[in-house]
Write a structure and sequence with these properties.
- The chain is of the alpha/beta class.
- It folds into 2 domains: about 180 residues, Rossmann fold; about 140 residues, 3-Layer(aba) Sandwich (Rossmann fold).
- Helix content is about 45%, strand content about 10%.
- The protein contains 11 helices and 8 strands.
- A 4-stranded parallel beta sheet has the order 2-1-3-4, sandwiched between helices. The chain has a two-stranded parallel ribbon with strand order 5-6.
């Protein structure tokens, strides 16, 4: 089955799960005051929970750093943990294509399941041109959209833990302020890239929302899902673009092998143009837990600062982290 077909089926399965969302929301009294037990698929989704709930939630993230959500299959231990959770949070829109049936099963068992990206209005999403009904799932790449997606997460936590509502809402406002700040940093820094170099070429097509937000032309060697293999024609076309545009750098991703990027670099070299690997970006996963890059703000900061410097723009020595430290 193709990655795009999985994306459509994954969206439908998660929408089915959402249809039984209300079956699990009245559990606050049954928890006896213990922290809300939350399972999140990706680090980006889990970071929303940590930022909003703090220690009022016990969070488990299914997919660690460097794990590709497009290809991940649930283990028996995952299923057991999901069935014990008060709340299950996925990105949705087919990102976790192979987990769709697992989520539907958990929802049928009466658990609260929320596909975070699917709460966004369709007009905010990027449609997949050759797959009617499918949308690009990488919405966290646009901070303004991710701030919107935080509200349903807060609402879900409030339903399960009404006593924490004041804290959750206060933390939500802090999260929005931080996201607004890094959005401004990204726009300012990316604007310093020379106009002819504002082309972002990555291992797979995960940065369309990022490009739309900040005015970059974005191209991935592989498609939206890493299940989609890159053909020789695709690599040859990108070699032509890199050489013609004198693009200085292309970018690897932490969750995707870089063999296709190496082929692109070698192809450009054979045409007399030196393009370098500008750095490794976080796309479908964040950095190690406990590190700055293991947070949503840190992931974005790393990506923006790496891209800006490699493409000839100007970024502060400490990137956004210096501004964040100075503001607190």
């Amino acid at each position: 089955m193709s990655g795009l077909s999985d994306a459509i089926l994954g969206r439908r399965a998660l929408l089915a799960a959402l249809a039984v969302w209300s079956s699990g929301v009245g559990q606050a009294s049954a928890r006896g005051g213990r922290p809300v037990q939350v399972v999140a698929t990706t680090g980006m989704v889990g970071d929303l929970v940590s930022a909003i709930a703090g220690d009022r939630a016990a969070l488990h993230m299914m997919l660690g750093p460097g794990v590709d959500p497009h290809l991940y299959r649930a283990t028996r231990a995952d299923l057991e943990r999901l069935l014990r959770a008060d709340l299950v949070l996925a990105n949705g829109l087919g990102l976790e294509g192979r987990l769709a049936e697992t989520f539907a099963r958990v929802a049928r068992a009466g658990k609260s399941v929320l596909a975070v990206a699917e709460t966004l209005p369709e007009q905010d999403l990027i449609a997949v041109a050759d797959a009617p009904g499918a949308f690009d799932p990488h919405v966290w790449m646009d901070p303004s959209l991710w701030a919107k997606a935080a509200e349903p997460v807060a609402q879900a936590l409030i339903r399960l833990d009404p006593a924490g509502e004041m804290l959750f809402r206060r933390n939500l406002e802090t999260l929005r302020a931080d996201v607004t700040a890094i959005d401004g940093y990204a726009a300012t820094a990316i604007a310093t890239i020379p106009a002819n170099a504002r082309v972002l070429i990555t291992a797979h097509d995960a940065f369309a929302y990022f490009g739309r937000r900040y005015g970059l032309a974005v191209m991935g060697i592989q498609g939206l899902s890493t299940e989609t293999e890159a053909g020789l024609r695709r690599i040859a076309d990108l070699v032509e673009l890199v050489v013609a545009g004198r693009i200085p750098a292309i970018f690897a991703e932490t969750s995707v092998p870089d063999r296709n990027l190496r082929a692109l670099i070698e192809g450009a070299a054979a045409r007399g143009h030196r393009v370098v690997l500008g750095g490794t970006l976080f796309s479908d996963s964040m950095g190690q837990p406990g590190t700055y890059e293991g947070t949503y703000l840190g992931m974005l900061d790393h990506n923006v600062t790496t891209i800006v410097r490699a493409l000839g723009g100007e970024a502060p020595a400490r990137g956004f982290s210096g501004r964040l430290a100075g503001a607190r």
